[in-house]
Amino acid sequence: MRGNRDATRSLPPPPLPGDRFTVAVCLPGDYGIEKGLIFSYLIRSNGLKWEIVQNIPLNKSSRAKVGTMENELKEERALVADLLPK
Q1: Which pLDDT tens digits describe the chain residue by residue (86 residues)?
Q2: Pairwise CA distance, residues 62 & 46, whole Å
Q3: Does the model's pTM come out above 0.70?
């Protein structure tokens, strides 16, 4: 599992084992997303820890949409770069 992140307060336990949901997290490049971007990933949780669901097949259209979202996030980050801590 990836992290605890005080999940007892921030992640609801799944109603059924194996349930999944999306959460925006900052991780080092899962699914080829640039390291340091906060991106929404499909995760699973046991209510205490969570992990990104890996190896989800994406068709060409879905992959293009993910790329578009990543580019938009990079543009937004560039717009506020002077406000971010270094």
Answers
A1: 455 444 445 666 555 666 777 888 887 778 888 888 888 888 887 777 788 888 888 899 988 999 999 999 999 999 999 998 87
A2: 27
A3: no
Q: Rounded to 10 degrees, what is the CA torsion of 60, 34, 36, 7?
A: 30
Structural domain containing residue 23? 7-83
Token pair for residue 1? 């599992």
Total number of domains constituting the chain: 1
